[in-house]
Amino acid sequence: MKQYKLLKHISQVLRQDVRISSGSEMLVACSGGLDSTVLLHALHGLGYSCHVVHAQFSLRDQDSLADEQSVRRMAESLGLPLTICPIDIKSERRPTESLQMAARRLRFEAFEDVRRQSGCEFIALAHHMDDQAETVVMRWMRGSGMEGLSGIRAKSGSRLHPLLGLRKSELKAWAEDKKISWREDRSNQEAIYQRNRIRQQLIPALEELEPSSVPLIAESAGHLQEAEALARIGQSKLLKQISLPAPEGLKRISISALLRSGAAARSEEHTSELQSRQYL
Fold first, then answer.
1. pLDDT digits (tens, 9 = 90+) for 220-276
2. Which 3-state string (H, E, C) describes 141-188?
3. Beta-bridge mates of residue 52
4. Which tens digits make up the pLDDT trace of 260-279?
5. In whole angstroms, what is the distance from residue 53 CA to residue 31 CA?
6. What whole-number distance in Å separates Cα of residue 62 and Cα of residue 267?
7. Rounded to whole angstroms, what are the CA distances from 266 to 182, 221, 230?
8. pTM, full prediction
9. Using CA atoms, how far apart are residues 162 and 17, in angstroms rounded to an integer?
10. Phi, psi of 81 (to 5 degrees)
């Protein structure tokens, strides 16, 4: 991928799709790995005001320290402010949480604290199309509904994901073309984690059956996001139709109005079915 194409894609996502102005201040999460390194350099190159944040879990001894030092050098070379978040995952981890679940929760909690303290509007995260496909497949295996299968959104609250339309291979080609170095996290290759097994075994098997599996799964997630948005609009309209006056803090609904709305929906569906039969 040519340099301008990657930057153009990210710029389009931020300015047109999620409507973020170029003057917005962003907290950019950077682990030192390929994905977040590309994101940081791209956002900086596009002129966004960036504040770098790095989560230090100290789980991989010297590797963790080397990651932090790499991010420090990167932030310094770009002239950007940096916040290191030391996280004691062993003491903060909940009894029911896996190590990865705890790390994810604690990382986002720490990043949100830094975002508020630094005055940044958004947290930019480096999830890409391959991550999206892995997330959807993993949630499908867990029996998730529409919300879960819609995957990662380009914008969710204060979180931004401007790389979702790009493959990891495209990020790597861009970094190599720009001669940008990054750190490799060896834990990403360990088969003890479910996501790693999906990445290493299941996704390649799907791509053997359908080479475009990853972009097609990501496209399906986009369709489900649109469907979920429409469903929420429908729910909001329905609540307005059936709601009754109630004391503050309470909600009352009209059962008769709810039943009428259900009958109307069935009648509309029946009418649509009859109309469609005319063309069979």
1. 999 999 988 888 777 777 677 777 676 776 666 666 665 666 545 544 544 444 344
2. HCCCCHHHHCCCCCEECCEECCECCCCHHHHHHHHHHHCCCCCCCHHH
3. 28, 82
4. 665 455 445 444 443 444 43
5. 8
6. 67
7. 57, 28, 18
8. 0.83
9. 10
10. -65, 150
Q: Report the sign of the C-alpha dihedral through residues 218, 136, 36, 117, in that order.
A: positive
Residue 173 token pair: 């080609």
State mean pLDDT over 58-84.
Answer: 95
| 222 token code pair | 């986009």
Separation of alpha carbons 92 and 90, rounded Å: 6
Mean pLDDT of 137-161: 95
Contact 87, 102 (CB under 8 A): no
Single-letter amino acid code for the residue at 252: R
Q: Do 92 and 103 meet the contact criterion of CB atoms below 8 Å apart? A: no
What's the mean pLDDT in 67-85?
98
